[in-house]
Each structure stands twice: as C-alpha cells, then as structure tokens.
Write a structure and sequence with these properties.
CATH superfamily: Spore Coat Polysaccharide Biosynthesis Protein SpsA, Chain A
Number of domains: 1
Strand order of the largest sheet: 3-2-1-4-6-5-7
Shape: globular
CATH class: Alpha Beta
Distance between the termini: 37 Å
Mean pLDDT: 91
Number of strands: 7
Length: 238
C-alpha cells in the first residue's frame, strides 16, 4: 500500500522463465505492492512454476496474444492503482516510485523508453525504433488533440487508477501488439488526464518476440498507424 492506496502489478507473460523471477523479486523489494498478477498466455516453459513459487497470483489467458493477456490482467486487478509491466525484465521496478509521485494529479502515467540517456545501449532501442515511436506518438497526439509531450507509442509500463480504467476497460479489444496504443487512445477518448515520463529501459532477458529487425519494426509501425486512423474514423478493426 502507498499513501493508503492499494497497488496491483499485472505482468503478461509468454515463455519468460529467464526473466519472470527477476521481475517479481524487483517489485516485491519495493515493499508496498499488494498483489502481483502473472497472466500466463500459454507458456510452454517454467514461467508459471517460477511465478507461483514466488507468490504471484497466476491467471490463465487461453486466447493467444499480448493484448489479450494485458486485458485479462487489467480486468483481474482489483486494487486502487494498477501497474502494467512486461515480464522480460527490460523495465525497472524502481520507476514505479516516480509514477506514484505524480499519480495523484493524473488518471494514467505512461513510461517512455525513447528519451535519450534513459535507455541502455544494449536494449533493443536502435535509431529506427526511437524514430518510429516518436513519429507515431506525435501522429497519435495530433489526431486526438493531446496537448502534452508524447514520444513513445508502444511502451507497456504504466500506472492507471482503477476508477479511471473502469471508464473504458470494456472498449479494449486488440489482442496483438497494437494493444498499447489502443490503451492510450481509449484513455484519451474517455477524457482522462494522462502524462508520459521517461523511464529506464534495459536489455531483455531471454529471447525477444517482436521487433527483431527494421522490417518487423516497420510492419508493427504500420499496424499502429492503421489503428490510430481507424480508431479516429470509427472503422471496425477487429
């Protein structure tokens, strides 16, 4: 609990046995997390066994997809504040403290991986990923009349108030990698007050599943762009 507010941490996972233990331990070290929920998205390795041993609550999501796992976790989280983070150990649990310092004034605070000096040279943040995220984030910003700085469209790590999430949770439908921009877009469409701040971004543990080269990154960027446009024009996208 932090300032009389309870906190859930939601971690979507798919074959994260090399990293999930480090993620859970890091959040436990903070000393104020009330529950850690690991969403098992059909892992075939020891992810579930490791998370269970460390005391995490395990929830199964059979529909394969990062977005489906995130949506399941957000719906299962019952505490006042919800932290959404990946299970690959690329994010630093200590940045939660920076979220919490500002959350009283916002509905949701989103991390940014693309700020110079904040991401590790060994992280998967080559120039084309930084550039693409900046361009798409600004397109999203202009499209939805967001007035503040936005420079990362695909960052999972964020905090959101439970009462704010309830306003749009049932509008979240994207099952794939486009889920993070959908989460931001639906928050803006619900007139939530959001902010993006720089966070640390580290080299991941285990095998990467997305954005391994510039071609795959370009494809993901195109998916994100289509989502931004289709959400604005209310075209059916799922």
């Amino acid at each position: 609990m932090y300032k009389k507010q309870t906190i859930s941490v939601v971690i979507p996972t798919y074959n994260e046995e090399d990293s999930i233990g480090f993620v859970i331990k890091d959040f436990k070290k903070l000393g104020f997390i009330d529950e850690i929920i690991v969403i098992d998205n059909n892992s075939k390795d020891l992810t579930v066994q490791i998370a269970t041993k460390l005391g995490a609550k395990i929830i199964k999501e059979k529909k394969q997809g990062y977005g489906y796992a995130c949506i399941k976790g957000l719906k299962e989280a019952k505490k006042d504040l919800i932290i959404l983070v990946e299970g690959d150990y690329t994010f630093d649990a200590k940045d939660t403290k920076r979220f919490l310092e500002q959350i009283d004034n916002y509905d949701m605070i989103i991390g940014s991986r693309t700020t110079k000096g904040w991401y590790s040279k060994k992280s998967h943040m080559p120039w084309y990923v930084v550039f693409g995220n900046n361009i798409l984030a600004n397109i999203l910003k202009w499209t939805y009349n967001y007035k503040h700085k936005l420079n990362d469209i695909g960052c999972t790590y964020r905090i959101i108030k439970q009462n704010s999430l309830k306003k749009f949770i049932n509008k979240l439908k994207i099952g794939g990698c486009d889920f993070t921009p959908e989460l931001t877009i639906e928050a803006l469409k619900s007139n939530l007050n959001i902010k993006q701040i720089p966070i640390k971004y580290k080299e991941r543990r285990g095998e990467t599943k997305l954005s391994m080269n510039w071609i795959q990154s370009l494809k993901i960027g195109i998916f994100h762009l289509k989502l931004i446009i289709n959400k604005r024009t209310k075209k059916k996208i799922y």
